[in-house]
């Protein structure tokens, strides 16, 4: 039965890869990346064998703790391990609970993250190659650590899915994740700047972590190497107890999940409340814009893209505290770039719902215009606000016209480019109702490739206003900045119009083919 | 080729065939082909749906019904063949053809983060209607389909049958001349199904044309006046329901035409007592 579950996992993986060449390529790149990481880790650990024991201990305990924490926390944000064998799908089969437990644990191991984690953990034994007994102990501890990672991540997902089988809860949890991620940015920045000043704190931190469930098991080999036998035994006990506790939690929640079917809760709004549909004019393009705006608010996958809006200024503000104040001025252009590209995945998010639109016979141009207008209605104010705000803080008022020109130029050109490219390329995205942070297999690579290509194109398109603004601020000739503002607005508008026209024409030509690749995506 | 020459290719049942682009046919399909990989999903399919008919499309799973209807409504590009809707070539004049057609597709998502009322309004506005007309029709449709109580609920929280009904409302809102419904009765309760049948019959008697794909033979036999049996991407028989069923029930005739019925009692191990 266990091997059967494993085979099922591999079969699903194989079949889903065979459906799309790009996904296969992406997974291969993921595997190569994992191999690279593994190689780096092994070499690093080998190098540590020559270093003093305390250094090896500090590095292994801290990195190991981060690894365990990552495995436990990431599933809350994304499906860190594959959910092909979700308990909900196996609920109808008469599989004994313990068999299911083992099968799910092993299937969590199969896949790039699981394999890299296990091999990477085992590589900690390499550090102790001069002391075979300690190396053996390290290998055992590594096995326990890897098991802790996988069981911990399974326990967390099962536990959360038991409480969150309702759609609304699942989506709300996405928002909680968004908020905590936004707060995480500044925290990391201030932490890392604090740490830069006090590398001496690392060994102490490692010693503290060694007593927590996160780091205990990783500390055992170095404890022995340092000659602290009793401490090693206690750490080992903490590590094993952690694994046992996670196993119990997982087993309990799995048993509960198997008898708690997914349920839905619903909430209704009053009749005649048409929201944006009543506010905007009654034309096809405006209807698309109203629908887009409704989705920006109601579908957490869209809201996730707005994450960058508060994150970028926060990051820039913290960096500029230590670095040059000019860094702040880049907030406007960066936010403009990221925001304007967020309609890139519009069609992918809709999936086959796009068929409704195709069969209505709407012109492609109206569709593109509606989507771009919906984004611009809140995106453009944000971009302008951030540009002015950043100058207000930095005090470089003379660069404001040029900066505004660049920001607005990037935003409008970006809208044009993504209006066209999103009519051509379908990007793998999480389905409606999924966790917004879930990654479709291979999505990272495809998205990164298309995103970089788009950035390159936009970079070329905004060169005029960029050059004007940079030369203007470098030479102190304010007039150049003002010209840059005019060029940015006018050139950006023209490029947006062209992008919408071309994208619309492309849509008119190939909507059926686009619909087919959207349908294949599921 | 003159119309009165005897047809040699088609089975004798196919008697209602009108000429290509004939004003009489609401939907006219000629020599339609579609390949998916190695498989011919639709294989030289020819079909005429007379104006004012309630036309049933029946066939086993994987017969090519959905593929054919997708191509007829401009959602899937055919490999070869012509499709005309009231004389308009669908793939030459996509936008004009789409204005004539209302579609309920099987197996596509809806914009389910909209409320039912918003979704139907959206479909109406996309077709370019003005606000007051849309509002009036949305009210009518929600009332006719018993969805008034759920008009403010997000479509994602609807049951399967309610989702079918709201999709039907989206197909009807722009008052199309041809209605293409892929599995409209699946998981719809008997009362709603009867209401939908009334709506469709009223629509047909006023000159509209409906083409319905379904697995429910009883329903097709009772509701439709014409029927086509499709298997392996071809039309096996077509004509009025009485012509096709030829004295027996539609279900028996269907099984006879399509074949593949097993007259065994199931495997030995499945006999419980």
Write out key terms for the chains shown.
heterodimer; A: 522 residues; mainly alpha; 23 helices; 77% helix; B: 273 residues; six-stranded mixed sheet; four-stranded antiparallel sheet; disordered N terminus
Sum this structure up briefly.
The complex is a heterodimer of chains A (522) and B (273). By secondary structure, chain A is mostly helical.
Can you describe this structure?
The complex is a heterodimer of chains A (522) and B (273). Helices cover 77% and strands 0% of the residues of chain A. Chain A contains 23 helices and no strands. The two termini of chain A are 28 Å apart. In chain B, helix 3 (116-126) crosses helix 4 and helix 3 packs parallel to helix 5 (160-172). Chains A and B meet through helix 13, helix 18 and helix 23 of A and helix 2 and helix 3 of B.
Walk me through the topology.
The complex is a heterodimer of chains A (522) and B (273).
Chain A: H1 2-19, H2 21-48, H3 53-77, H4 87-90, H5 97-109, H6 112-122, H7 132-163, H8 167-197, H9 201-209, H10 216-226, H11 229-258, H12 276-279, H13 284-298, H14 300-305, H15 308-322, H16 331-340, H17 346-350, H18 354-359, H19 364-394, H20 400-421, H21 443-461, H22 463-475, H23 478-520
Chain B: E1 25-36, E2 39-50, E3 54-58, H1 65-72, E4 80-85, E5 88-89, H2 94-100, E6 101-104, H3 116-126, H4 131-144, H5 160-172, E7 178-182, H6 190-205, E8 209-213, H7 217-223, E9 226-231, E10 234-240, H8 241-245, H9 250-258
Parallel strand pairs in B: 3-8, 3-9, 6-7, 7-8
Antiparallel strand pairs in B: 1-2, 1-4, 4-5, 9-10
Count every beta strand of chain B, where a strand is a DSSP E run of 2 or more residues: 10
The biggest sheet of chain A, with number of strands, parallel, antiparallel or mixed sense and barrel status, is: none
Number of strands of chain A: 0
Q: Which percent bin holds the helix content of chain B? A: 25-40%
User: Which outline of chain B best applies?
Assistant: globular
């Amino acid at each position: 039965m266990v091997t059967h579950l494993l085979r099922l996992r591999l079969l699903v993986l194989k079949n889903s890869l065979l459906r799309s060449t790009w996904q296969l390529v992406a997974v291969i790149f993921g595997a190569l990346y994992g191999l690279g990481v593994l190689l780096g880790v092994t070499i690093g650990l080998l190098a540590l064998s020559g270093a003093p024991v305390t250094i090896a201990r500090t590095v292994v305990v801290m990195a190991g703790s981060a690894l365990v924490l990552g495995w436990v926390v990431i599933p809350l944000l994304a499906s860190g391990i594959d959910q092909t064998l979700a308990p909900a799908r196996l609920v109808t089969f008469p599989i004994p609970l313990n068999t299911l437990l083992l099968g799910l644990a092993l299937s969590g191991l199969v896949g790039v993250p699981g394999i890299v984690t296990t091999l990477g953990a085992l590589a900690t034994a390499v550090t102790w190659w001069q002391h075979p007994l300690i190396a053996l102990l390290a290998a055992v501890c590594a096995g326990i650590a890897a098991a802790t990672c996988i069981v911990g991540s399974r326990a967390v997902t099962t536990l959360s899915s038991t409480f969150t089988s309702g759609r609304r809860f699942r989506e709300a949890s996405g928002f909680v994740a968004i908020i905590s991620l936004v707060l995480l940015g500044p925290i990391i920045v201030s932490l890392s700047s604090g740490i830069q000043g006090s590398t001496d704190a690392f060994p102490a931190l490692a010693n503290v972590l060694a007593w927590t469930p996160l780091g205990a098991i990783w500390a055992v080999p170095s404890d022995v190497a340092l000659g602290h036998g009793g401490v090693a035994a206690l750490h080992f006990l903490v590590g094993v107890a952690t694994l046992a506790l996670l196993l119990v939690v997982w087993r309990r929640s799995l048993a509960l999940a198997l008898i708690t079917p997914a349920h839905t809760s619903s909430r209704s709004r009053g009749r005649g409340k048409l929201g944006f549909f009543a506010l905007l004019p009654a034309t096809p393009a405006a209807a698309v814009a109203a629908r887009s705006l409704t989705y920006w608010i109601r579908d957490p996958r869209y809201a996730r893209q707005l994450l960058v809006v508060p994150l970028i200024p926060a990051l820039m503000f913290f960096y500029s505290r230590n670095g040059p104040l000019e860094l702040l001025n880049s907030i406007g252009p960066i936010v403009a770039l990221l925001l304007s590209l967020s309609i890139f995945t519009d069609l992918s998010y809709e999936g086959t719902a796009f068929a409704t639109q195709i069969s209505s016979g709407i012109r492609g141009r109206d569709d593109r215009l509606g989507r771009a207008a919906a984004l611009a209605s809140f995106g453009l104010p944000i971009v302008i606000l951030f540009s002015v705000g950043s100058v207000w803080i930095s005090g470089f008022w003379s660069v404001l016209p040029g900066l505004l020109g660049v920001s607005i130029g990037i935003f409008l050109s970006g809208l044009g480019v993504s209006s066209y490219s999103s009519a051509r390329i379908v990007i793998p995205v999480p389905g409606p109702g999924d966790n917004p942070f879930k990654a479709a297999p291979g999505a990272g690579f495809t998205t990164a490739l298309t995103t970089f290509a788009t950035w390159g194109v936009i970079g070329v398109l905004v060169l005029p206003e960029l050059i004007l603004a940079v030369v203007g601020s470098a030479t102190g000739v304010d007039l150049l900045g003002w010209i840059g503002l005019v060029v940015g607005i006018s050139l950006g508008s023209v490029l947006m119009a062209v992008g919408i026209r071309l994208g619309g024409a492309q849509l008119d030509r190939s909507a059926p083919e686009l619909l087919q690749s959207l349908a294949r995506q599921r | 080729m003159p119309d009165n020459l005897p047809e040699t290719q088609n089975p004798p049942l196919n008697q209602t065939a009108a000429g290509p682009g004939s004003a009489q046919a609401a939907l006219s399909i000629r020599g339609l082909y579609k390949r998916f990989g190695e498989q011919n999903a639709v294989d030289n399919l020819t079909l005429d749906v007379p104006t004012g008919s309630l036309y049933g499309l029946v066939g086993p799973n994987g017969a090519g019904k959905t593929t054919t209807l997708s191509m007829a409504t401009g959602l899937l590009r055919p490999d070869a063949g012509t499709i005309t809707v009231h004389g308009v070539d669908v793939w030459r004049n996509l936008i004009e053809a789409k204005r004539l057609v209302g579609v309920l597709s099987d197996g596509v998502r809806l914009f389910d983060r909209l409320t039912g009322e918003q979704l139907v309004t959206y479909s109406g506005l996309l077709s370019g209607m003005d606000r007051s007309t849309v509002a009036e029709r949305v009210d009518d449709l929600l009332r006719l389909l018993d969805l008034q109580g759920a008009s403010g609920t997000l479509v994602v929280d609807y049951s399967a049958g309610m989702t079918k009904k709201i999709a039907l409302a989206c197909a009807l809102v722009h008052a199309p001349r041809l209605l293409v419904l892929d599995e409209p009765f699946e998981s719809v309760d008997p009362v709603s199904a009867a209401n939908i049948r009334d709506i469709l019959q009223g629509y047909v008697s006023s000159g509209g044309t409906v083409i319905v794909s379904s697995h429910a033979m009883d329903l097709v036999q009772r509701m439709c006046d014409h029927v086509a049996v499709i298997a392996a991407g071809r039309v096996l028989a077509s004509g009025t329901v009485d012509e096709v069923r030829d004295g027996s029930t539609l279900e028996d005739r269907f099984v006879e035409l399509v074949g593949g019925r097993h007259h065994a009692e199931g495997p030995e191990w499945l006999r419980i007592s």
